[in-house]
Amino acid sequence: MEIGIIGSGVIGLTSALALVKDGFNVTIVARDLPGDDGSQQWASPWAGAGILPYPESKGHDLQTETFKFYRALAHRDPTSGVQVVDVTEYYDGRNDDSTIWYKRMVPKYRLLPSKNLPANAKIGFKYQSMTVNPAVFLPWIKRLLDKKGVHFIRAEVKSLAEARSILKTPVIINASGLGAFDLAGDDKVIAVRGQTMLVESDSHEMVMFQGSHYTYQIPRMFSGGVILGGVSQPGNSDQDVDPDLRPDILRRMNAISNDRFRSVDLNKHVIADLVGFRPSRKGGYRLEVEDGIIHAYGFNTLGYTYSYGVALKVCELAKSLLAEKRALRSHL
Known about the structure:
GO terms for molecular function: D-amino-acid oxidase activity; FAD binding. The protein is of the alpha/beta class. The chain is 29% helix and 28% strand.
């Protein structure tokens, strides 16, 4: 059974992994491949990337399956760039944890007493999750897929018709991220600019503040540093680093971490500045079949958090689609 995938970001790669585990032969066509340096035209290499569920996001089952996948991977193979970390989340727009659905899923969940909250935070809690270093994980999963016989074709696909002519498979997965704006003719797709910096640190804790501002630290395994962020700028296509954001991010991070990074010198301790464009979609992600194409895109900041759950759903949709095609042929 042959399956084609457009895109080699985290959604495309994990979908390929789930499909080959299910016995499919997979071919991936993509403009950018894991290991490429410098391209800002795809989001996965630039992600934070924490496995961090979000209270209002749909697809709890997808996030749950993803959580189990990365937790098992962190324990089984740390060379994958996945590690278990302690997480602290703060919100200044919530009064309690009634909407925190994942508190029943994550290990070691506990609410923080109000005296331990940073200024303006109304609620805080701790638990255990995982972070992913994309610079390690993406090449790692590509090597794994290479060993499993997945075929990679480097090509910039301009249309679904062109993808069909290249892949020549009965089923195609559209995991093209921002490319879906043109490929699927989906004008709901929008790029959301993010900017972070990798700062020297030995911290192994993930911290997230959400509400009136969006501030976080995410450990990056094997890098000698942590990611500090961030911003969320829909429609901003500027690929250059905004120097004014660096001190602003550092100020916000110190405000929520009891001045943990007060000794950071932005001229000495920043390993790298990162600018990427998250593949968002107005109204939420798309995970469905249309005209024989399985669409899986629009996950914004939660691509890694959704990835393996989406992959399992893609497998399910692919089996159903192939069964429909077989049934149709049998009636002809």
